[in-house]
Structures are given as C-alpha cells and as structure tokens.
Records
---
Amino acid sequence: MHAYVGAQIAAEHGLSQEIVDIIRKHTGAGLDQEDVRELGLPPGDYMPRTLEEKIVAHADNMVSDNRVVVHQFSVDKLRAKGADRGAVRIEMLHQELSQLYGRDLDTILGLIGEYPKLKGVRV
Ligand SMILES: [Fe+2]
C-alpha cells in the first residue's frame, strides 16, 4: 500500500500528476492487474510507462536500505516471496533501461563509488 498511500499524500500536497504517478508506479517494475487484485490495492494503473516512471522504479530496485545493489538483489527478493511475474518484470526493465543507457546498469555500482551512507554491494 505504500506506493498508493505515498501517491495520495503527494497529491494532497499539490505535487504534479506526473510525480504522483511516478510514486504510485514505483514498486518493483510495476504491478499488473493480477497483482493489484491479489494485493487488494485500490483499482488503478500501477505499471511504469513513461521513461521517468521506469527510471525511478528501477532506481528503487537497485537500492536496498542504504545500499546500492545489483538488480539481481531485487529479482531474488521477489522470487523468494513467490512473486515470479514481478521478478521477470524487473529483469525485463533492467534490460530495457540498460539498452537505453548503453551499458549494463549494474556497472553503476563500480562508477558511483562509495558514499558515506551508500555502499555498493555485490550479491
Ligand atoms: Fe517504495
């Protein structure tokens, strides 16, 4: 529910519809309508469709708590929960955005280095 509730809060604070949509659609690589039903979420579109929506969703997939992680970390996390469709979507989103970026996005871990509270980890 945090994506839905977060989007509601953003809307209440007058943020643009684009930002509200980014927040609502940022979970994993989006939620399909079957996920929406299974999770008991209010009806709506939870799939990232714009480039900005996809980038934020996938950036979130590559951070866990205060660590930058390879995308496989989030894929494995979803598989462990039995959310195989979601895991496949993360893999597909990773491929799509890596292709647009021109290199595997997992290489970002090696580029950004280490920040005070942001440590890259390999899984
Ligand atoms: Fe989130």
---
Amino acid sequence: MIDFSDATFVANPYPSLKELRSFGKPVWHDALGIFLAARHGDANDVFRNKSLGRIFVNRQPLFDWETFNWLHSDSILDSEPPKHTRLRALVAKAFNRNKIEGMRPAIERITNELLDAIDQKVKSKENFDLIADYAEPLPVKIIADLLGFPKSEEYLLRPWSQAIVKMYEVNPSQQYQSEAMLAAGEFASYVRDLAEHRKENPSSDLITDLAMVEENGEKLNMQELVATCVLLLNAGHEASVNAFGNGMVEVLRRPDQMNVLRTSPRENTESAVEEFMRFDAPLQLFERTATRDTEVGGVKIEVGQRIAALIGSANRDETVFENADEMNVARAVNPHIGFGAGIHFCLGAPLARLEMSVSLPALWEKYPQMALASEPLRRPTFVLRGYESIAISA
Ligand code: HEM
C-alpha cells in the first residue's frame, strides 16, 4: 500500500494514484487506518456526503497544544454545522465578492513591484527564483494587505504558517510537532493583539470588518476572530504559492504549452489557471470522519471511520478528463476539485483565481523566453505539494 512519505512516491505520486483508481472503489489503508477515495466521483462524494464531517481531534500532550487546538476547533475549516454555518455566514459577509474584486488594483501593483525587482536580476544576467521572487511573496503580500497585517512584519507570516501546516502531513515528526505548537502560540497572540487594537481603532481592512461583522444578531467572539484571521492568513497563501509553482514547472517543461501562452497569453489565462489547479494539485488530501454509517463508491463507511479525498488523483481521473496525464492550458471542460466541494468549498477560490489571472500573464508577457535554469527542487511533503525553489533564466 502507498507510503505517503516515501521520496519516490512524493517525486511523482501519479502512477501509484492511477493504480489506486484502478480498484474502482475506495481502498482501505491498513497502516493509516483510513479509506482512500482516489476516483473523481468518490473524492467528490467525500466532500459532499453529509454523514462525513471534518472532525478536529484535539492534539494531546507531549506538548502544550491548547492554542493549536482552539485555532482549529474555532475555525470554519474545522467545524461542522451548526457552528460551521454560523461562522461561514459571518466570514462570507465580510470577505465578499466586492471585497475581493476591490483587491485587483493592489494585486496589479504588487505584481508590478515584484516584476521590477526581478528585472534587476535579469538585467544583470542573474537567474531568478520563481518561488522566492514571485509565487511566494505575491499571495503573502496580498492576504496581508487584505487583512491589514502590518507591512513591516509580513516576514513573520510565512514561517508561522509553514510550521503549522506541516501538521497536516500524514504522520508529522516530533520536531514538526514542537515547531507547530510554538508557531500557533506566537501567531495567535500576535493576531489577538492586532484584533483588539482594531476593535478600538477601526480601519478599512478585513480584520476590522471581521471584528465588526454581525448576522442575525450573531458576532464572532475573540477566539473565533483570531482563529478566522489565522486561517485566512495561512490558507490565503500556502496553496496559492504551490498552484503557481507546480503549474509553471510543467509549462516550462512543455514547449508546446509555453508556446500557446506566449502567442496568446490573455486569451488562455482563464483555462490555464484552471489547468494549473488540476494538473498537479497543490493540496492533495483532505480527510473526513463518518458521523453515522454511510457509503462511498459502494463501500460501507462505519460511524467513526475515516476516509480521505485524494484531490490530485481525482483531477487525473481518465474517465473524467481527456488525456488526463497531459497538461493542456487551453482545456475547455475542466471539472477539477482543486478547491474542494460541498459546504467547505474554498472560500478564497475567487481571490486565488484573481491573483493567478493577474500575475500569470504578466509574467508570460514580460519574459516570453523564460526557461528552467536547473532542475527545480521539490518539497519533501505530499499533502502540501510544491517546490522549494525554481531557478529561471530569462
Ligand atoms: C490555489 C489556492 C487554493 C487552493 C488550492 C485552496 C483549496 C482549498 C480546499 C481544497 C478547501 C476545502 C478543504 C476541505 O473541504 O476540507 C479550502 C477551504 C478553504 N479555503 Fe482555500 N484554497 C486556495 C486558496 C485560498 C485563499 C486565497 C483563501 C483565503 C484568502 C482560502 C481560504 C479558505 C477557507 C477559509 C477555507 C475553509 C472553508 C470552509 O471550511 O467553509 N483558500 N481551500
């Protein structure tokens, strides 16, 4: 059975995932004690089945997990109805379409600033790093700007977030655990101070909006407010960095695809963004627990049993996608589930799409001749799938 931490598997998980799909139904992983839903229909059902919930189980000592635990149990992502319904309504009211579309000028400005800095390197014949110089700072700056996180302290976000999300891998090491626990404490206390300050001194940012938002007489309490801000700051950039990097590496390996983008960058932006989300999913696995007996793909899931939706596998399902193992930036029909489905469907999908649809063509237009300068360096993790660095010559 699959070993999710095996280096060969992480380097290219798709052949093993294809084999998993060939069973034609969810498969039990004995060592991990979880069903794996690898086909598109089954993974989609895992997200939509009302008898399957995101049940956050508090982490227990070894370490002091108190803050880590409530950062999750009080967040939208890790709660279920009725709490989820209430939190999602409040957050969606503050984080609405107008707010997101209003970010367009900021996204364009940040994109241009980053490209100007890259240009300095290109002019002095240096390579640039697509991750460190573009894909990473872009969503970090945007989500920080949106929430009203102080610019001078943006550098704190990425290390805190990276430490926390390592806990989402299958079997995190003890070192990862202690780093996540410390990061959760620091992050929460920083955001609590910021939120308390904004409550007293309102400003035109999302932290203030979330502190003030009210729906049917309900408000977010301080713990929910902090948990929401931390979730948005983390979710608001982690996957975006990798969606961008994973897609770009494949395009740069495929001259025919690069050619499509080079010759008509704007016409294919929308389909390219969706194909980036499909082809090498930045988030590969999400799990659910049965709250009562149910069934997925003809397999009985008993109350208390866990099942994982394998997004990257679902997005390569050959029964749904034509030439599923090939990137096609002009793909017309693309029902990928990169943003999930059902009640937890990604709240940030419109923002992630807007960011990519501004920043991708800006890069293609500026450097139509760009190429991989060396073999890009993969991160060793499966669930959050991405690259450490991607050296580019232009
Ligand atoms: C390419 C980038 C992104 C990807 C691939 C992605 C993917 C996902 C997925 C798969 C889920 C569902 C998880 C589940 O059902 O268990 C989710 C939920 C969520 N995402 Fe994203 N996301 C991205 C960007 C963003 C951004 C930019 C934000 C915020 C600014 C964001 C905020 C959220 C939130 C708040 C949820 C929880 C929604 C809920 O539980 O109701 N995401 N995302």
---
Amino acid sequence: MTKKELWVVVERDGSEIEDVSLEILGKSAVIAKSSGYNVTGIVLGTPEDGVVRDVIRYGADRVILLKHERLNQYSNDLYVKVLFDLISSELPAALLVGATYYGRDLAGRLAARLRTGLTANAINIKMDEKGLLVFGVPAYGGKIMAEIVCENARPQMSTVRPGTFSKVFDQGKKGEIVEVVPEISKVQDRVKVIDRKINKSKDLTKSEKTIVGGNGVGGDFSLVWKLAELTHSDVGVTRPLADKGIVPRELQVGTTGYSLKSKVALILGVSGSEHFTSGIRDCVTVISIDIDKESEIFNHSDYCVVGDAAEIIPAVIKKLEGKI
Ligand SMILES: Cc1cc2nc3c(=O)[nH]c(=O)nc-3n(C[C@H](O)[C@H](O)[C@H](O)COP(=O)(O)OP(=O)(O)OC[C@H]3O[C@@H](n4cnc5c(N)ncnc54)[C@H](O)[C@@H]3O)c2cc1C
C-alpha cells in the first residue's frame, strides 16, 4: 500500500538548489494542500543546513536526507541505487524530478528499475478525483495537451519542465528532517568524473528581451550577437542552428528547448513550425522578420516584417550605432 506522499528529488550544485526543484516543491505543496498528501523533498549528499531548511521553506513538509559524501556529485549508479532502496521501503505515491540533464538521466533508469511508468517533461500536474496524478504534456508540436496517468504501477513518476511552475517561499515554515545513511560502500560507480565544467549559459526562461535566429539568418550569426548586445537582449536559436553547432544547444527555443516568457521577442528568419512556436507562445510581444510573406511565423506574431534579414539586421545595427 503506497503512502499519500509526493516526493521531489532535489537537485543541487553545492548549496545552490536548482530552480526547477523549488518550482516542483511549490506545485506539489499546492496539490498536497487540497488532497491530504504530504510533500517530501529528497536531498542527497552532505549539504549545508541551509539547503535542507530551504527545501522545507519552499514547500516540503519533510526532508529525507540521504547522507553520504559520495552523493555530493550526481552519479547515475549511486543515485538510482539509493533512491530505489528508499522508494522500495517507503512506497511513496509519486516521485517528481526536474527535467534537467541529470534529472532526465536519473528518472529514466530509476523508473525502469522500479518497473513503473514515467511521464517526460510535464508542464502541468493535477490530481483527479480518484487521487491519481494527471501529467500534462504538449503533443503534436504543442497542438494538443496529452494527459497522462499511471493507473497501476507505483510510484507515479514524471520529469517536470523547468520554468513551468512558480516557487512558493514561506520563511517561517517548519518541517521534519529525517537522516538516512545509505549502504553504498560496495556500489561501483561506472562513470569516473575526470573534470567538471559548469555551463554558465543564460536561463532563457527569465529573459525579458530575446532575439531568436533561425535558418534564414544563414551561417554568419555574428550580426545577431551584435544586435543583441546593442539592444541588451539575450539570444536564442531554432533547432537547425543548434544541430549545425552554430550556437550552443543550450540556447535552443521550442518543444525540446526553452519556453520563452519574454516581454519582447524578435524572431529572425524562422519558418514557424509547431515545434518552434510552442516556445514563444507565452511571450508578450512577438516581432518577426521573414523574407517569405506567407511564412507561418507571421501567424504567431504581433508585428510582421517582410524582408531580407541579411539587409535589415545590418541596417538596424547601423541605426543603433548612430551611423545612419
Ligand atoms: C521531435 C521534434 C522536436 C523539435 N524541436 C524543436 C525545437 O525545440 N526548436 C526548434 O526550433 N525546432 C524544433 N524542431 C524542428 C522544427 O520542426 C523545424 O524544423 C525548425 O524549427 C525549423 O527551423 P527554422 O525555422 O530556423 O528553419 P527553416 O524551416 O528552414 O525556416 C527558415 C525561415 O527563414 C526564412 N528566410 C530564409 N532566408 C531569409 C532571409 N534572407 N531573411 C529573412 N528570412 C529568411 C524562410 O522563409 C523560412 O521561413 C523539432 C522537430 C522535431 C521532429
């Protein structure tokens, strides 16, 4: 018999908790409040006290701290082992994980070991009248919202898209802290970490002004960077440009990239496929430039400019630099 518990795996880098973990805690707390469930944050490693306390302040009723030095850095082998053991003995109703690189890596293998289902990249979570979690996932390029439930297997698992839910902070919130020392002395970590480099690329979900370049901008992306610098904007790209390595994959916008919430988004040479437009639908004002007046992107734009980006971008740059 599973317990009325919503578990959230808390991802952290040292003392910094990933925003998505805090967002899931906030959403879980809202669901728990109306359904009589408890929220438990699962923290791994040996973090500072403030991390554990923050997990409670951001929504957990309880924290289970899986305390071991070897868990301070993510390891698929170790994390799957300790979480599998804990879940098998505690039987929570649900387990939620941020859809980050590590979260996706962890959730897939953990779900397979637990022989349960896994919803990927949920952007909505609610509980139905039977007490089942209903995970909302955009399908067919965002045309429909698929609702996924895991009726029989437990825990109900999902990864959750970063930037989807709001954080809720309550400075005075109290909760229980349970320390568990996992038995991992004999577990071999098959991945050896030789070096670690933090990718400091911008989180585009927080970008107020974004310029997105697509295939129509061509191979020379330097003018887009220049325009972004002059207008204090962030830069995003469509998938083909990330595929070609013109701009890092981390800056991709769309179904498999960021969902922008910018006040202004300038879209350059982008055809407007559904996989892309799902990433700009929450922007306040969308301005597009495309050479083709029939381009689909214009159906998703507030201002439409028909023209050659290779002529318009340099002209705008010159204007901003006061050269014309
Ligand atoms: C499962 C799946 C997931 C995907 N996820 C994503 C995703 O997250 N993000 C994403 O972007 N794509 C994604 N795609 C790919 C997506 O379907 C499109 O292929 C992609 O968005 C097209 O990129 P684009 O608009 O830059 O290029 P194109 O489709 O080639 O469009 C280029 C546009 O530029 C215009 N143009 C050409 N020359 C000029 C010029 N000189 N000046 C101005 N305009 C010009 C053209 O008229 C055209 O409208 C996904 C696809 C699949 C199958």
